[in-house]
Every structure is written in structure tokens, then in C-alpha cells.
Amino acid sequence: MSETVIFRDDVSVELIKASASDADVIWAARVSTAGEQSMDEIGEDPARSAGLINYLARERHGSPFEHTSMTFFVSAPIFVFREFMRHRIASYNEESGRYRELKPVFYIPSQERKLVQVGKTGAYTFEDGTAEQFDISVKAMKDAYLIAYDSYQKMLEAGVAREVARVVLPVATYSSMYVTMNARALMNFLSLRTAREGSHFPSYPQREIEMVAEKMEAEFAKLMPLTYGAFEKSGRIAP
To answer: Which residues bind FAD (predicted)?
Structure first.
């Protein structure tokens, strides 16, 4: 095996570019009552701006939040992306195992990752596993990953096409993608993929996608503090 195998228990999220501010929301909303406005007029009255955004979020007037754009670069296991792409409210471009040789970077849970599911679908919680369960899980994962990647390399060396050889790789293989969405779509994503007290509709996301969502949420909160505050006040419901 020529490549050095890397085991990770984290995810990476980087805000690549953004055209997203509270002023964009206010500018879009006010056209309905004031017609065209200069962006220079926006923000002259902070209290009024906050009040308008809170009103839009509370009454679920969502379209003004769509006049924004955020592009993130995400590095995470493939199984996280399969969950992510269930949200049909974003644009995605992911690296392709058809066109490039995939690197041996694989996910293993951290020791803080809860391992035991208690209850049944729709009414369950996750609890800490024992040290033995953690050790068994990590060893089983690493053994499987090494066998899979060795098989992948043997197929490539034999001249098998990358798009065929990749089928032996596990969904714990790390991939990367660009994802672009507007603030309304991001709030919808966060409402479903984070577990927070005070949420009007409780959510029970898989921890690994929640790790991605938490990093995206931190960037969103910095870019659009008034909108983010309104999202929190409304019980984390997307407008």
C-alpha cells in the first residue's frame, strides 16, 4: 500500500465565499412596501432592522432570506454527504472517484461519540458505549478499511478503471464538496441537523452530520447576526 492511511474523527468546513448579510434581507423585504431602495439606506435604524427581520422570521415570510448566498467547502465521510444531499435546497459539487484516485482517509469515531442506541425508531436516544465497545468498533473499522483500500489499489494496479475499483471502498472514506445555499435553506438544514434545547420541533440528527452543521452555523451566525438571532427566537424554525 503506497499511500499513508489516515484515520480522522473530525470534519472540515470552510466558508469559501458569501454574499449574505442582514441588509440583503431587509433590502429584499422592503421592496414590497417602498419599491426600489439603495443599499446605503439599509441599516440606518438598527432597531427597526432587527424588528423587521424578527417579524419576517416569526410570520414565516421566507422569500427575503433567499436573496443571499453562502458557499462552503466541506470535507467529511461519504455517508455524511449521502445524508446531506437529501436536502434538495442547495447546489452541490463533490469530488469524483471516477476521475481521480481516492485517498486512504477514513472516519473513526472519537471517544466522545455515543455508540449505543436505546429505544426504537422514532423514540430513541444514544448513550455512551463502554471502553470495550469503543475498542471493538475502532479495530473493526480500521481492519475493514485497510482490506478495502488494499483491494482498491490492487484493482487499479491491474488496470481496472477507477469508477469500477471504487466500489470496494466504504462510505467512511472521506470526500469533499462545495455546497452553496441561501440563508433560508441553511436555516432549514440547521433545524433538521442539529439537536438543540428550545427547538420548536426537536431533531435527532446523526452526530457526524451535526458536526458539519455546527461549523456551518458558526459561520452563519457571524455573517448574519440579526437573522441568526431571529432564527433562535423563533424556535429554530426556518421561515
So the answer is: 63, 86-88, 94, 182-184, 188
pLDDT score for 39? 55
106 annotated as ligand-binding: no
Mean pLDDT of 212-218: 98
Task: Compute, in degrees rounded to 10, the torsion defined by CA atoms 230, 188, 35, 43.
Answer: 30
236 in a labelled binding site: no
In a domain, 146, yes or no: no
Domain that holds residue 37: 6-108+172-233
Among residues 8, 48, 100, 193, which one is catalytic?
A: 193
Q: How many domains does the chain have?
A: 1
Is residue 8 annotated as a catalytic residue, yes or no? no
CA dihedral of residues 192, 194, 195, 200 (deg, nearest 10): -50
Residue 210 is assigned to a ligand binding site: no
CATH number of the domain that 199 lies in?
A: 3.30.1360.170
